[in-house]
Amino acid sequence: MGFFYSINRPGDAAAPRVLTNDLWLIYRHACARADTPPGMPPPQDPGPCQQRPFVWDAANTSAVPADIDPPKNVGGFLQGVFERFANAPVAQAGIQQAANGYGVGAHTTLQA
User: Fold this and answer.
1) How far, in Å, CA of 4 to CA of 25, rounded?
2) Which string of DSSP letters, residue by residue, matches 38-57?
3) Rounded Cα gap, residues 24 and 26, in angstroms
4) What secondary structure letter does DSSP report for 37?
5) Given this model, what pLDDT does residue 62 score?
6) Closest Cα partner for 18 from 93, 107, 74?
7) What are the start-end ranges of the H helices in 1-112?
8) Of 41, 62, 72, 74, which residue is least crowded by CB atoms under 10 Å?
9) Taking the alpha carbons of 63, 68, 72, 78 in that order, is the dihedral positive or negative?
10) Distance of alpha carbon 103 from alpha carbon 51, whole angstroms
11) How far apart, in Å, are the Cα atoms of 34 and each of 41, 74, 104?
12) pLDDT of 11-47, one tens digit each?
């Protein structure tokens, strides 16, 4: 919950708030990332997402289920963040920092 609160109320005034609608777009971007060229809007239909496993970073995972072929069908939340906030590097960095701080991202630290 700390992760979601921190991205909804970022400490950096220049970072946009990540609202529930943004999380839905991140999810859709992450799901469609393997099938949609970068910069294209994700499809409205979340149907293909139902059979797609998700990880934090699809580019750097070895946890691809054996039944997934080709492995590009693994969705990555981080890739969804980069697509959703393609024009907002402060948001990208803030979300990644919050994820790492709250144990969600790839490089985690303990949050006091």
Assistant:
1) 15
2) TTSPPPS--GGGGG--EES-
3) 5
4) -
5) 55
6) 93
7) 2-8, 20-32, 77-84, 89-101
8) 62
9) negative
10) 25
11) 13, 8, 22
12) 878 888 888 888 888 887 777 655 566 666 676 766 6
Say if residue 94 is exposed, middle or buried (CB neighbours under 10 Å; 0-12, 13-18, 19+): buried
Give yes or no for a cis peptide into 43 (omega within 30° of 0): no
| Position 37, amino acid | P
What is the spatial distance between Cα 101 and Cα 110, in angstroms, rounded to a whole number? Answer: 6
| Cα 49 to Cα 11: distance, rounded to the nearest angstrom | 32
Alpha carbon 2 to chain centroid, angstroms: 16
Q: Which amino acid is at 4?
A: F
pTM: 0.71
